[in-house]
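Why do we bother with holo predictions? Because pocket geometry can differ from the apo form. Keep that in mind while you read this record for pantoate.
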Amino acid sequence: MPKRNGLVVARTRAEARDWRRQLQAQGKRIAFVPTMGALHTGHLSLVQIGREKADVVAASIFVNPTQFAAHEDLGTYPRAEDSDLQKLAEAGCTFCYCPSPSEMYPAGDSTRVTVKDLSHILEGEVRPHFFEGVASVVSRLFLHVGPDVAVFGEKDFQQLLVIRRMVQDLGFPIEIVGGATTRETDGLAMSSRNAYLNAEERARAAAVYRVMTETAAKVETGERISAAAEAAQQALLGAGFASVDYVAVRRGDTLAPFGGDTAPVGVTGRLLIAARMGKTRLIDNMAFVRK
Ligand code: PAF
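The structure, written out:
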């Protein structure tokens, strides 16, 4: 298999399995960071967590067609394999799986993995195809790479919970670790899709973090959830967002709504926001605990 700065690049599932067998024969523990490429500091922080959790870190770069709807940005999603491989090697990754779509979804493919309930709320309401695509590709990546630990960013918090549920239900012998969201200095969560923002939109996009922080503080001190969410929505629209898909205040473990209109004392919650700035859809979230 070709190497680049010590990074082995596998393009087929057979190559990925060969690499894993060699590593396992040496008794090495493997951490895995699945990505869709266009890597930024946030991804590299997940590689760092992988290094702390295992002997070697593997990544994957695959822009997964099944998690995009026909009207979404599959065709224009940023692709930068050469510089991504360079960044991974520099971050201490020793293996990258870069399969083609036909390697991941062979001719005649008709198997999908669905995590019920959790996949159909919040992001799942706006993007009904999304979590089935994610669960389907992540389960295949897990089978091809066979890691001991896999690291996912908390930026996509609902995705992290969907994957945890899938791993528990299907009995994958893989520890799932969440990595804290990496932010720009003004608080904007790093995301490959931030590249779509023009300069004016980029400056306005920082409002998500400001509004999220203010809203979490309100809910933590017992303000009504409905009022805090409505104020957050108005603040985002006032800051130049074209529309707000949701501002949701939920239980942190299941993303189910709290029973009442205030968060219960001592329970960890999640505030989740999705809003559109021009053509770009931004999502973010934050933990809180009601005092
Ligand atoms: O978070 C992502 O980048 C993707 O959803 C993932 C987990 C790599 C699956 O394609």
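Strands lie at 3-4, 7-10, 30-35, 56-61, 95-97, 149-153, 175-179, 243-251, 268-277, 280-289.
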